[in-house]
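Each letter names a residue; structure tokens follow underneath. Both lines appear below:
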Amino acid sequence: MPAKNLNDLVALCKRRGFIYQGSEIYGGLQGLYDYGPYGVEMMKNIRDAWWRSMVYNRDDVEGIEAALLSARAMWKYSGHEGGFSDPLVECKKCKLRMRLDKMKDQSKCDSCGTTDITEPRDYQLMMGLSLGATTDGEINAYLRPETATTTYTNFKNVLDSVPHKLPFGIVQIGKAFRNEISPRGFVFRMREFEQAELQYFVRPGEDEAQFENWKNLRMDWWVNELGMPREKLRFAPHEKMAHYAKAAEDIEYEFPDGFDEVEGIHNRQDFDLASHTKAQDEFKIQANVIKNTDSNTKLSYSDAQTGENFLPFVIETAMGVNRAMMAVMMQAYTDEDLGGPPSPDGSGAASGKSRIVLKLKPSLSPVKAAVIPLARNVPELVEISNSIVSDLRKLGLGRIELENSGNIGKNYRRHDEIGTPVCITVDHQTMEDNTVTLRHRDSMEQVRVAIADIPAQLQKIVNG
């Protein structure tokens, strides 16, 4: 059974080194988190799964990595500087600041209940910066609030250096920054987060079919690559469309407190390239854009066969990597009753016969295998264990750990919570016949296998 509430997952993340509160030793900073030894591994595995499906398994998508800082003009013409804001109200009594559209009751404070609150005002979500020695504090750059805009401004660069025919895409994975009024839900909504976004450029008229195609591709990825049950996911069309969108739907996951967004798929029509292109008057722009007097490049596509020169439409898929990790861990989190006699307090619960296990897809697990010498004070067992670890690391599957604490039961429980798919125990019989015990995470089945067979078996487990 998945986690029943967020607190269970938060406790596990802290205890086992997945996610820590940012600036914790100074009281913490809301909406900012640090990723520990196993958190960075799992984040990398999710990134790799996304990049593999988007770039390595396709011929029509290229990757870039743009700067985190960008010119103020870029965000002016994208519409962010003038319209990227949330409605903010403040309680005059307790001074709590709240997003109007997220309040339980818009007539009173969520905290103290008073009705003495301010009128709503726009709250700028972007983080402005003053770059250079002579700016006198004036904002002339922004930390990017998303990765999409820097993809559009690099459209011509990519097309000139790696030519493609339409349709083709450009992807980015990277940090984004938003000055959220009220970060919430652990790593669900943060001020610093990581996005994985595809911008797929298509001919006008082919956009609706491509929108449906990418909806299906992305849903299949969540099921097949992240191991999420299809019945826990759904499409949710946007009730109120963004100014740039022709169509928009979210993939939502059923969290303990209800369905919420984990990825968005949008038909952005020609808004983005039209917003940033030079010579806008030369094109039949369908979207409503700001007149651009600063761009020095035409972001158009020239068809060599027809002679057409036009601004492509964009189909976007946008996933928060942190949010994806949270959803996957929520689904994998299992509090498993292993049976046993009732507890002495009469509650009916099993007495000490339970375990917490992360039933992750093995390819996403932060540790792919743990090798455990049964007795840490027997040099021969430790030597064999080190040899097995060395051979498994050569496979390049990911992190392989040597567990040398000497307590086999605690080691198993620790790796259950981390989500390690197999533990390999080296015992005294190993020294006699070169076999070890292979213990499977989900079933807890233990089988004897030859040391020589471990690499092939682990590859099969991890790669499916």
Q: What stands out?
A: The chain is about 30% helix and 25% strand. Residues 342-351 have pLDDT under 50 and may be disordered. The chain has two domains: 6-83+143-330, 365-463.
